[in-house]
Every structure is written in C-alpha cells, then in structure tokens.
Amino acid sequence: MNTQGTGTRPPADRNGLAVASMVLGIIGWVTSIVFVGGLLGVIGAVLGIAALWKAQRTGTGRGMSVTGLVTSSLAIAVSVLVAVFMTWYANETQQCYDPGSFRQYRQCVHQQLTGH
C-alpha cells in the first residue's frame, strides 16, 4: 500500500490572530453606527497589533493584519463620531423630549437646529 501521492498536504501556516482581527474589524466597521462596532474595533485593533508581531516572526498573515487594523480603526473612528454627533444632537434638542406628537417633536427640533 503506497501512501505517497495521496493528495494530503501538511497544514498551511496560518495566523489566526490576523483572521480574527480582520473579521472583528469588518464587523466592527459595519456595526459602528450603533456603538457596538467601537468595542469590536478596539478588540480587533489589539488582535491586529498582535497579529502583525506574529506575522513578522512567521511571515504569514501580514495583509489580513493590516486589513484588520485599518477596518478596526475605521470602526473606532466612526463610533466616536456617532457618539459626538448624538451628544451634540441631544444637547441641541433637549427641550423637545416631551412632545405631544411626532409632528410637534419635528417642529421643535427644526426650531432648535435652525434657530427659527
């Protein structure tokens, strides 16, 4: 029985940290508008940095590590911008929070944001 040439290959070197960083970065970027992405982005960035260190030693996963870092950074940035905008919006429209109807709320917000 000849076991050579059966098509089995040794397992390829993989950088699991790079894959995790890239996946978390992409999911974080997509969900960053609802703040969850910021947390996923932070975790993805930490994993991306660790994956880059591992990629320097092993030579695998550099591209995915960089992708993870970039998308994680974008997720963090978008989450921070959304938080700043929501804080500004809440501050500008705080007196509109007890309207009798949605129409009154819209009018109040319009008045607060435009000054009319």
Write a structural description.
By secondary structure, the protein is mostly helical. The chain is 71% helix and 0% strand. It has helices at residues 16-30, 36-58, 62-92, 102-114. The longest helix is centred in the middle third of the chain and has 31 residues, at 62-92. The mean pLDDT is 86.
In short:
The chain has 116 residues and is mostly helical. 71% of the residues lie in helices and 0% in strands. It has 4 helices and no strands.
Which helices and strands occur, and which strands form pairs?
Elements: H1 16-30, H2 36-58, H3 62-92, H4 102-114
Helix pairs in contact: 1-2, 1-3, 2-3
Oligomer description: single chain
- Gap from first CA to last CA: 89 Å
Percent of residues in beta strands: under 5%
Coarse structural class = mainly alpha
Percent range of helical residues:
over 70%
Question: Would you report the number of β strands?
Answer: 0
Shape: rod-shaped
Calculate the mean pLDDT score and round it.
86
Poorly predicted regions are: none
Number of helix segments? Answer: 4
Radius of gyration: 24 Å
- Helix/strand order, N-terminal first: HHHH
Summarize the biggest pleated sheet.
Answer: none
Keywords:
single chain, 116 residues, mainly alpha, 4 helices, rod-shaped
